Amino acid sequence: MTSSIWTEKYRPTSFSEVRGQKDIVEKVEAFVKSGNMPHLLFSGPAGVGKTTLALVIAKELFGENWRANVLELNASDERGIDVIRVKVKDFARTKAIGDVPFKLIYLDESDALTKEAQQALRRTMENYTRTCRFILSCNYSSKILDPIQSRCAVFRFKPLSKEEINEVINEIIKKEGSDLSQSNSPEVKDALFEVSGGDCRRLTNVMQSCFAIKKEGISLTPEDIYSMASVAKPKEINEVLSYAAKGDFLSSRKKLLDIMLQYGLSGLDVIKQIQKEIWNISLDDQRKVQLVDKCGEVEFRMVEGSDEYVQLESFLAFVVLVGQKV
Question: With a threshold of 0.85, does the pTM exceed it?
Answer without folding.
Answer: no
